[in-house]
């Protein structure tokens, strides 16, 4: 089993990482976590070394880029990494898409996923909690109000609310819940991404991969970077967030964050 952990980010790191600070400027950030996964980090480091050895004439850049996903995918990503095999919208090839612009990443994730009218509960955590003796409806509440962030968060919520009068009553999230208090369906994954040899590509829904002399596809609008090879990216931060008026209506092409790409090495 792959051992990993998801830890809250300390205040100093929130201010030091510019890619996190940008999100505070553009969205209502709920919480920020850091992924510690030695196996994925080792594979990522090994792949970086391979790229440097295989093509010594071109520098391997390491960028921090944004990927937006549904909150139900966060635990799997922290454990197993992003997986191009699950890609369903292939505008620039069948790979994992990243952007330096959080507004762009959020907007196109919204188009892809749309709105949801049902709640996706983490079934594994739900089974564990029910086997521990907690009522199913209470477990639903716990997972809903902790955004499926993990077993420990759910247990804490259950213990904090075990005396609530409606603790075990049937749980149906109201429209008010979805639209205001806890309308959190997506999370930013801020990833370290290895980029060495880029090919510019136009929108092509029939494109699967690019020639193997390239490792990265870039959209002609400059907003999207697509990776096709495993372990050329490492999920470092998870940022749970809500949209507000600024992020809903801002023009993603106004982003001017690309000068902050490079990660200190």
TrEMBL record:
<keyword id="KW-0520">NAD</keyword>
<dbReference type="InterPro" id="IPR009060">
    <property type="entry name" value="UBA-like_sf"/>
</dbReference>
<feature type="domain" description="PARP catalytic">
    <location>
        <begin position="1"/>
        <end position="264"/>
    </location>
</feature>
<protein>
    <recommendedName>
        <fullName>Poly [ADP-ribose] polymerase</fullName>
        <ecNumber>2.4.2.-</ecNumber>
    </recommendedName>
</protein>
<dbReference type="InterPro" id="IPR015940">
    <property type="entry name" value="UBA"/>
</dbReference>
<keyword id="KW-0328">Glycosyltransferase</keyword>
<dbReference type="Pfam" id="PF00644">
    <property type="entry name" value="PARP"/>
</dbReference>
<dbReference type="GO" id="GO:0003950">
    <property type="term" value="F:NAD+ poly-ADP-ribosyltransferase activity"/>
</dbReference>
<dbReference type="Pfam" id="PF22562">
    <property type="entry name" value="UBA_7"/>
</dbReference>
<dbReference type="InterPro" id="IPR051712">
    <property type="entry name" value="ARTD-AVP"/>
</dbReference>
<feature type="domain" description="UBA">
    <location>
        <begin position="120"/>
        <end position="161"/>
    </location>
</feature>
<keyword id="KW-0808">Transferase</keyword>
<dbReference type="InterPro" id="IPR012317">
    <property type="entry name" value="Poly(ADP-ribose)pol_cat_dom"/>
</dbReference>
<dbReference type="GO" id="GO:1990404">
    <property type="term" value="F:NAD+-protein mono-ADP-ribosyltransferase activity"/>
</dbReference>
<dbReference type="GO" id="GO:0005634">
    <property type="term" value="C:nucleus"/>
</dbReference>
